[in-house]
């Protein structure tokens, strides 16, 4: 490792879960004999110290979110959540790409852990990010929410799906809403985005106008869906008794998508 190692720190993980100490991600000094090929550089902290993540020695490699990985957003600062997300995605990617997809030979980590190189054929491989549209269809003061079969009872959220090759974001929004719910939309507008490191998606949040409210569900993808008005969305986001559905958690961009829509169509009584 370079001479900065005496100042460098390494992120401590429990499998792929974060470890928290005193409201911050747990760190440890990077061992003096650490091999650069076994680590990824996550960035430089405000004190000028490099932060690394070990790329090996993480037995729990499931890409799915866990209570610990979800809960860290309520404990540590936002910039540390981003550090953890980058580490989680990189570790999972390296674990699955030890061999070249071109020729099948072993690859090695290069460029501070942000690439893998194949010495056999010279191919370079880079971490992938999968774009996902997540969207609300709006029709006459109501928005469409749906649920997957595997979700907890009562949980509903915005519909979502991967962007296909050759598609624009707008086309993906329209296709997914029609495929999953039979809803045709127009006037797609972008609101915000969120990295989702389970394992490596970028959630692209949008709102679109529906031509009508008739639903034809693809029941292999969506168990149920319904249109909900502003009062119902407000009750769900506030987790009120009797709310028409259980909202996604505030760490998810879907929660903020619902909140932004609500603020636009129906300001809260306190701000009215």
Architecture overview:
The protein is of the alpha+beta class. It folds into three domains: 3-96, no CATH class; 98-126, no CATH class; 130-265, Nucleoside Triphosphate Pyrophosphohydrolase. It is 21% helix and 31% strand. Strands 12, 13, 14, 15, 16 and 17 form a six-stranded mixed beta sheet that branches. It has a four-stranded mixed beta sheet with strand order 6-1-8-7, covered by helices on one side. A three-stranded antiparallel beta sheet has the order 9-10-11, with no helix packed on it. The longest helix has 19 residues, at 78-96. It is globular, with a radius of gyration of 22 Å. The N and C termini lie far apart (59 Å). 31% of the residues are buried. The model has no long low-confidence stretch (mean pLDDT 93).
Sum this structure up briefly.
By secondary structure, this protein is an alpha+beta fold. The protein has 5 helices and 17 strands. It has helices at residues 67-71, 78-96, 169-181, 230-237, 253-265; strands spanning 9-11, 13-14, 17-18, 20-21, 24-25, 27-29, 39-44, 50-54, 107-110, 115-118, 124-125, 130-139, 142-147, 159-162, 185-196, 201-210, 224-229.
CATH class of the largest domain: Alpha Beta
Radius of gyration computed on alpha carbons: 22 Å
**Average residue pLDDT:** 93
- SSE pattern: EEEEEEEEHHEEEEEEHEEEHH
Find the count of extended strands (DSSP E, 2+ residues).
Answer: 17
Would you tell me which CATH topology of the largest domain applies?
Nucleoside Triphosphate Pyrophosphohydrolase
Proportion of helical residues = 10-25%
Query: Uncertain spans, ≥5 residues at pLDDT below 50?
Result: none
- Biggest beta sheet summary: 6 strands, mixed
How many structural domains? 3
Structural class: alpha+beta
For the terminal residues, how far apart are their CA atoms? 59 Å
CATH H-level homologous superfamily name of the largest domain? Nucleoside Triphosphate Pyrophosphohydrolase
């Amino acid at each position: 490792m370079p001479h900065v190692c005496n100042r460098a720190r390494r992120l401590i993980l429990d499998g792929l879960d974060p470890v928290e100490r005193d409201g911050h991600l747990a760190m440890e000094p990077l061992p003096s004999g650490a091999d650069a090929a076994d680590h990824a550089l996550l960035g430089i902290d405000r004190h000028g110290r490099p932060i690394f993540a070990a790329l090996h020695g993480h037995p729990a490699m499931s890409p799915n979110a866990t209570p610990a990985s979800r809960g860290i957003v309520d404990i540590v600062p936002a910039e540390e959540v981003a550090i953890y997300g980058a580490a989680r995605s990189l570790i999972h990617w390296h674990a699955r790409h030890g061999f070249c997809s071109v020729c099948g030979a072993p690859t090695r980590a290069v460029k501070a852990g942000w690439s893998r190189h194949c010495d056999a054929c010279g191919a370079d491989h880079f971490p992938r990010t999968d774009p996902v549209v997540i969207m609300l269809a709006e029709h006459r003061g109501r928005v469409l929410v749906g649920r997957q079969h595997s979700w907890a009872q009562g949980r509903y959220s915005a519909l979502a799906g991967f962007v296909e090759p050759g598609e624009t974001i707008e086309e993906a929004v329209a296709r997914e809403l029609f495929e999953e719910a039979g809803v045709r939309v127009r006037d797609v507008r972008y609101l915000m985005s969120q990295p989702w490191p389970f394992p490596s998606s970028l959630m692209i949040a949008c709102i679109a106008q529906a031509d009508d409210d008739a639903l034809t569900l693809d029941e292999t993808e969506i168990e149920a869906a319904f249109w909900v008005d502003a009062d119902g969305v407000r009750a769900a986001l506030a987790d009120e008794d009797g709310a028409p559905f259980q909202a996604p958690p505030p760490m998810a961009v879907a929660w903020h998508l619902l909140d932004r829509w609500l603020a636009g169509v129906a300001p809260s009584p306190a701000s009215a």
